[in-house]
Description:
Layout: E1 9-18, H1 30-33, H2 44-55, E2 60-66, H3 78-85, E3 90-99, E4 103-111, E5 117-122, E6 131-136, E7 145-150, H4 155-169, E8 175-180, H5 191-196, E9 219-223, E10 226-227, E11 233-235, E12 244-252
Parallel strand pairs: 1-2, 7-8
Antiparallel strand pairs: 1-12, 2-4, 3-4, 5-6, 6-7, 8-9, 10-12, 11-12
Helix pairs in contact: 2-3
Amino acid sequence: MLNRNVMAERTLTLLTCNIQAGARTASYGDYITRGWSNVLPAGKRGTLDAFARMIASYDVVGLQESDPGSLRSGFMNQTHYLAQQSQMPFWSHQPNRRIGGIASSANGLLSRLPLHEVMDYPLPGRLPGRGVLIARMGQGPDGLTVAVAHLSLGARSRRVQAAYLAELLSDYTNVVLMGDFNCPPDAPEMECLYRNTRLLPPVWSQPTFPSWKPQRPLDHILTSLRSAEPAPTVLPAAGSDHLALTLTLRVPESALQGTAKAK
C-alpha cells in the first residue's frame, strides 16, 4: 500500500563549470604561452564541442566565463552554441563584463526544464563585472530556483556579494546556488549565505582548481535539497583551468509543478 506521507521526488543531475571561454590551459605556463587565446578564437570550437558532449546527459548546467560574443569567441554566443550542441532546449545568459570588442564574459544556464522566470542582477564589489543569474523552474512559492554566480577574487568584495546573494535568495525554499566562488565553502565570507538562506554547506568539498593539479575548492553547488549521492563529483572540462563539478539532487515533485523535462 502506498504511503501517502512519503513525498514524491524527481532526480535531477546538475553540473557547473568555469569554461574559461573555451580556452585550453594545462599548466601555469599556458597562461603566458597561450595568452593569444584570450583575444583570438582559434581552437575554441573544438573545445566547446567536447564540452557539449560531456554535458549532454545532464538536466541543468551552470556556466561561468562563457563568452557571449566577441573577437575571442569568433563573435559566437558560447552559451547558445553549447545549448544547441548538447540539445538543451532552454537556455539563458547574463553578460557581465566586456573588454572593448576583444573579450566578453557571461554567466550561462542550460536546462532540460522550462525556465518560467529569469532574473539577472549585477553583484556589488570594488570592481564591476560580476553577476548572478536566477531562474525559476517550478511554479508557486516552493518552485525550484537555480542561481548561477561568479564571485570576485578579493575576500572583501566576496563578503559583500555573499550578503547580497543571501538577500536575493532568502525567501526561496527549494534553491540551488552554483558557480565559481573563488573561495572554499567554509570561508568566513560564506557564513551569511548559510545563516540567512536555506542553503547548506556541502558535507565536504572537492578541489577544482587548477584543473591539471587540483588543490583549491573554488567551485560549488550549494543547495537546500537532498543529495542523491554522498559527495559532488569532479570531471575534466575539455581544457578549462577549472574542473567541472556535478551533483545529483532529489527534488520534490511539488517544486517542479507544471514542469515537464524535455527529452
